[in-house]
Each structure stands twice: as C-alpha cells, then as structure tokens.
Amino acid sequence: MKNLKSKVAFITAASCLAVSFVSCGNSDNFAPDSSNSNSASAPDSSSSSDSSKKDEKTDSTDVKTIKIGTGNNYNPACYLDENGKLEGYDPAVLKAIDELLPQYQFTYETFDFQNVVLALESGKIDLAAHQYEWNQQREDNYLFGEEGYTVFDMYVWQIGTDDTVYNSIEDLAGKTVHATAGDNCAFFLENWNKDNPDKKINLDYTVPATTEETISYYLSGKWSVFIVPKKDIDLYNDAYAGCNFKLAFDEPLYSSNTYFLYRKNDPEQTALKEAVDGALAELKKSGKLGEISTEYWGGDYTVSNAAYDFHKE
Predict the structure, then answer these.
(1) What span, in angstroms and rounded, lies between the C-alpha atoms of 178 and 21?
(2) pLDDT at 37
(3) CA dihedral (113, 118, 121, 124) positive or negative
(4) What's residue 210's pLDDT?
(5) Is 304 part of any domain?
(6) Handedness of CA 251, 23, 104, 1 (dihedral sign)
(7) pLDDT per residue over 45-92, tens digit each?
(8) Number of Cβ within a 10 Å radius of residue 291
(9) Which domain holds residue 28?
(10) CA R_g for the chain
(11) With 0-12 CB in 10 A as exposed, 13-18 as middle and 19+ as buried, what is 277?
(12) Residue 21: other Cβ atoms inside 10 A
C-alpha cells in the first residue's frame, strides 16, 4: 500500500474528504491542489516487455498522443512523490490502460483541481482524471466514461464510545449529520429528507477549517455520525486517538463510482472514451484493476456493495 500510513498522506487525503469531499461530487470550483500546469510521467512499474511495447508505440506513425490532465496533491489518487514524479492510483490505472491501447500514447500534465476540467474544455488535454464522481453539473458539461474505476460505498460510522443503536438510515431521524453543499452525500441526504418529511435528518453545512476541527465535532457529539468510505475511516482511526469509529450499521447508504471525463460532441473524444472503457473492462475482468486499487488504497475498491448508485440517476 503506497504511503497511506504516513501522517502527511493522511492529512492530504483526509482533508479532501472530511472538509471538502473532493471526490464526492463537489462543484469543480474547489481547488485542493496548489500547483500550476506541469508535464509529468506516469508511475514507472514497467516490465521490459512493457517498455518494448512503449517503444513500438513511439516509433509508430499511426499512434495518436493523448494528453491526460490530473492533479498532484490528492494522495493516494494523484500526487507528486519526493522526487517530483507523478504518482497515485489514477495515473497507475491510466498507465495500465495505455498498455492495452496500441493506437494511443498517453502523456501527462498536472493542474490545480479546478483547472483540470478547464483544460479539458479548452482542448489542452484529452482526458480528465481526478476521481470524478457523477453529478448533474458535470453531466451537463462533460462526457462521462461508462466504466467506473473506483467505487465509493458510503457507510455510516459512529464514535467508538457512542452506544446509540442504529439499524438503518431511519434511525438517523432527528440526528445531526455534516453535509457539504453540492456534493453527492448532501444530495442523497437532502433527497431523503424531501421524501421522508417525518424522518428528517438535521444537516449541518458548517465547513471546518482543519481535519482536527472536524474530528472534534464528532468527539463532542456536535455531529452524530460520519458518512465516508471504509478506506478513509481507517485513516482517521490510525491518525487520531480516541476516535475508534465503528460501523453504525452494515449496509452502505449508497455507492458512487469515479469516472474519466471527456469533451462532449466530439467524435474523436467519443472514440477515445470507448477505447478506454473497453480497456477498463478488461482490467476489471483480469483482476488487474483490483490489484492496483489494493496497492494504492489498501483494498479492492472497484466493486460496490450498495443498492443505490449515483451513476446517471
């Protein structure tokens, strides 16, 4: 597992999720990265045969160069290592896809989070990769891949010392839950309240300044439960003594996949999307995608256990 247990990696990933939920369908105006655009290379895990394939691509006049845009400060999804080299799950997945597509050669550029999609719109890049989940705003503006590459099963967690018994979302009625305006978690909870006016959950849209402040709200009881994927709760429990978050109930509230984004109404982009979707399907079938997930996230987060999926609902 790549760097997940380090304090620096935890603060980066946890801050994105607890404070701003970058990967949970936020508006694309939020910017966790602090970098300008930079060229980068994908993680180097090539075998000699992979290198030969790459050389063959480079030598071929029929190969089309595809510019990938991603971030560089969201560990373990996309970040720069100590040598300034692009690392992370997203570029590793793209490298594996590239190896399956002889007609394309991927190159990489990193951007501030909000500038990745702007670069896509302007034609500076051909594919945007930054753990993008589906939401209506993005659907209106971009072409989504059909194959997801990360699954976020969103579970409900409570502080270890909290003895409240929860059996389902219905038991959250009257409880206070943190929500980030515009993200998929807030969308799900807001719709629950709309559809179940007699079982409303109190939503608090406060934006904590730090991860420590977020944790203090749970420890103090200001917020009753925490809604995040299991892979992220492990980080909190490892880094903050006294949390010991435990599952409130077994079933996830919902699932939200991540997808690559492309430009709409562009035949070449559609062809690229279809090729990438085909390669992703092959990586899933072979088990390679799950292996990459385990390397970077610490587990296979490519299969959902939830009944409700946000993809194009």
Answers:
(1) 11
(2) 66
(3) negative
(4) 87
(5) no
(6) negative
(7) 444 445 455 556 656 668 999 999 999 888 899 999 999 999 999 999
(8) 14
(9) 7-151+255-297
(10) 20
(11) middle
(12) 22
Amino acid at 3: N
pLDDT tens digits, one per residue of 119-158 = 999 999 999 999 998 888 889 999 999 999 999 889 999 9
Give domain status of residue 33, yes or no. yes
Report yes or no on 232 lying in a domain: yes
Q: What is the pLDDT of residue 240?
A: 87
161 exposed, middle or buried (CB, 10 Å; 0-12, 13-18, 19+)?
Answer: exposed
Listed as ranges, residues in the chain with pLDDT below 50 are 4-27, 29-35, 45-49, 51
SS3 assignment for 257-287: EEEEEECCCCHHHHHHHHHHHHHHHHHHHHC
Report whether 262 contacts 120 (CB < 8 A): yes
Asked if 123 and 117 count as a contact pair (C-beta separation under 8 A), the reply is no
Domain count, the chain: 2
Name residue, tokens 């594996």: 96
Q: Domain check: are 58 and 118 in the same one?
A: yes
Helix (H, G, I), strand (E, B) or coil at 169: helix
Is 303 among the domain residues?
A: no
What is the reported pLDDT for 16?
Answer: 39
DSSP letter (8 states) at residue 183: S
Bond before 252 cis per omega within 30 degrees: no
